[in-house]
Design a protein that fits this description.
The complex is a heterodimer of chains A (314) and B (342). Chain A contains eleven helices and eight strands. With 314 residues, chain A is α/β, with parallel strands linked by helices. Chain B contains twelve helices and twelve strands. The chains are: A alpha/beta (314), B alpha+beta (342).
């Protein structure tokens, strides 16, 4: 069982002092949730869990713990973020020890909640089913019908370049070829696209959870927080909200692993990945580059060459 | 006074309110996402969700509020204050915890030290129609924070859902103004018995067991405790728990300038953001998540209690429900007890 293996490896790494701490997932306090935990002793390692609710991209914590030797539990997308961060030279002093777990794809807790009438008080997995229980009901749901969009289209479930792998790799076959949110967006006219973008961003409360949940958002000062110069105001005016969301997405170009953490974090359920996915797709088509796959390939948008290879730039 | 409103009369009742007042009520923006908003049609209301994401404080203290506008005309400057409330308001369908939270903010904005006119005017112009929570969520813990799912405190009128009708209790002078309302009728003794049964059942459902008594004394001893080194670790430093908190009331005032004119705006602020405590010199007295998380909890469970005699948490559970990393304030309250007792 994967969970058992994760615990064993964590114990081993901590006993041999190969890492100072392990960052992984523990039991959440709510149904359908796991929560990030920080394990420092072999005795605590039995708190580590693995299931389809381990939705966070734990690479975000690498910034906070950069002074430590971290053992990080990584899914495919998290591993890609680690590579992308390494390419940006974030871990010069302490390389990260990646405990890779091939990902079974994560369950979209909101999708589950919306499919069930009444409050879910307990949820667990049984084979390919999710069993949810509440006051006077018990329902069995097909796990594959309740996955995150980003997981349905994922082509890198197996962590790339992990220092060790727990569990057997999956065959890399996405459940959906084209991200539905990108296809829908592409099929819209430019006016419809704007209206869609306008409507989604209008719910923004500027909590910046999308920024904070993203491992690639680590600027010492985010442009929204800058007061000299002040790039934008801090109110809820549509133009400020739109400005924030456009720049946030564009800063991800060629850097986003497509993990979907931004969208999962949003309390107002603003759709965000249609933009970052589309940008990922463009970068792949134009530069033949995918974030976090090749640890030596420089990210195309932060590379300068006098002789650019791409014809469309010249 | 206890009256009754048949559910098929709800829409005409709301329609009549809309004619006489600005009516604010929970409105769904997208499946599962709602806020309190001014409505133009009774159909816009959605009472199925217990608490909207954004609390009712927003009606009295908007997330982004223009305080004044200024304009230079020739050699003279004109300033327009924006503190007036033109039309009387009704807030329909707010839950007891959210209404409690308004009285928490009253302590600060309408306290003995100063009066916030923007808040005051909206407060005065408002009649609050609260609605009981027949089915509180498992994340609700109002019973641990001095409230309960049927708490009438702060409501002018209070509705109890009986299935086919609402009991409408008129509780204050503002509420009694609805005594002659044509949509209300006499409640039968069966109706009142049913309401009481529902109340008894619901009140047992919320968690009343959290160790909040004496929490400020425990926290007094914990300012420099290693407890804070660990508790903040998983917090990613977004502002969800503070912005969506019905009692959090910090704001930041900004001048938005344009050539020759501009406006002064106040926006909700969050103690979990780095910028909140950043000083002009560049020094930040709360440099990491450790100090910021401590501030959030200290303010709710220690400072506020010392200043105003009650904690600044009403147990609505929003910070638990919407936290991206499942930081659970109930768990923290329990751990404070353990840490304080050890």
């Amino acid at each position: 069982m994967i969970q058992q293996k994760i615990r064993e490896k964590a114990k081993e790494l901590l006993s041999k002092k190969e890492v100072d701490l392990i960052i992984g997932f523990g039991e959440g306090t709510l149904p359908l949730r796991a929560t990030p935990i920080f394990i420092r002793t072999p005795e605590e390692a039995d708190r580590l869990i693995w299931n389809s609710f381990c939705e966070s991209n734990l690479a975000i914590y690498l910034h906070k713990f950069s002074q430590f030797k971290v053992g990080l539990i990584v899914k495919g997308c998290d591993a890609r973020s680690v590579i992308a961060l390494s390419l940006e030279k974030r871990f010069r002093t302490n390389p990260v020890f990646r405990i890779g777990v091939p990902c079974q794809r994560m369950v979209d807790r909101r999708k589950v909640k919306k499919a069930v009438r009444g409050e879910i008080l307990e949820a667990y997995e049984e084979g390919d089913q999710i069993i949810v229980k509440g006051d006077g009901f018990q329902i069995s749901l097909n796990r594959d019908d309740f996955l995150y969009h980003s997981c349905q289209v994922c082509t890198h479930r197996n962590p790339t370049h992990a220092d060790l792998l727990v569990g057997d790799p999956f065959e890399e076959s996405p459940l959906l070829e084209i991200p539905p949110e990108v296809r829908e967006f592409e099929e819209m006219s430019s006016e419809e696209r704007w209206r869609f973008f306008e409507k989604e961003t209008s719910r923004c409360i500027r909590c910046y959870a999308c920024r904070e949940a993203c491992p690639m958002c680590y600027c010492r000062e985010c442009f929204v927080d800058s007061s000299r110069p002040k790039w934008l105001e801090k109110s809820l005016s549509p133009s400020d909200l739109q400005f924030y969301h456009i720049v946030r997405a564009y800063h991800q170009t060629g850097r986003c692993s497509g993990c979907g953490a931004c969208e999962r974090a949003c309390p107002m359920e603003i759709r965000l990945t249609y933009l970052t996915r589309k940008l990922n797709q463009d970068v792949k088509e134009l530069f033949g580059f995918e974030t976090g796959i090749d640890p030596d390939a420089p990210p195309p948008l932060s590379t300068y060459e006098t002789e650019d290879r791409q014809e469309f730039i010249k | 006074m206890k009256l009754k409103l048949d559910k098929n009369e709800l829409k005409p009742f709301l329609q009549s309110l809309i004619e006489d007042y600005d009516v604010y009520a929970p409105v769904e923006l997208k499946e599962g996402v709602s806020i309190y908003k001014k409505i133009d049609q009774p159909e816009e209301i959605n009472l199925n969700l217990l608490n909207p994401q954004k609390p009712v404080k927003e009606v009295f203290f908007p997330q982004s509020e223009v305080m004044l506008r200024y304009e230079r005309a020739g050699k003279r400057s004109q300033v327009a204050l924006m503190e007036e409330v033109v039309r009387e308001r009704v807030i329909f369908g707010a839950r007891p915890c959210d209404i409690q939270a308004i009285s928490v903010i009253d302590e600060v904005f309408l306290g003995k030290d100063y009066t916030d006119v923007y808040f005051l005017h909206k407060r005065k112009a408002s009649t609050i129609i609260g609605i009981a929570c027949n089915h509180p969520l498992s994340t609700c813990f109002c019973s641990s924070t001095g409230g309960d799912p049927f708490s009438r405190k702060g409501s002018d009128l209070f509705f109890i859902d009986l299935g086919e009708a609402y009991i409408a209790e008129l509780l204050t002078e503002k509420g009694m103004a609805f005594r002659e309302n044509r949509f209300f009728k006499e409640a039968s003794s069966e109706d009142l018995t049913l309401a009481q049964q529902i109340e008894e059942k619901a009140s047992k459902k919320t968690d009343a067991s959290l160790p909040i008594d004496g929490i400020e004394k425990r926290l007094d001893q914990m300012m420099e405790s290693p407890f804070w080194d660990r508790i903040h670790e998983k917090c990613i430093g977004c502002g969800i728990c503070t912005l969506l908190c019905p009692t959090c009331h910090c704001f930041d005032i900004m001048d938005e300038d344009l050539a020759g004119k501009g406006q002064r705006v106040r926006n909700w602020d969050s103690c979990l953001s780095t910028l909140y405590s950043q000083e002009t010199s560049g020094h930040n007295p709360r440099p990491t998540g450790r100090e910021r998380t401590r501030q959030r909890l200290m303010h709710k469970f220690n400072y506020f209690l010392k200043n105003f005699g009650r904690i600044a948490c009403v147990g609505c559970g929003r910070c638990i429900l919407y936290c991206p990393v499942n930081f659970d304030i109930r768990q923290v309250i329990k751990e404070i007890q353990k840490a304080g007792d050890s």
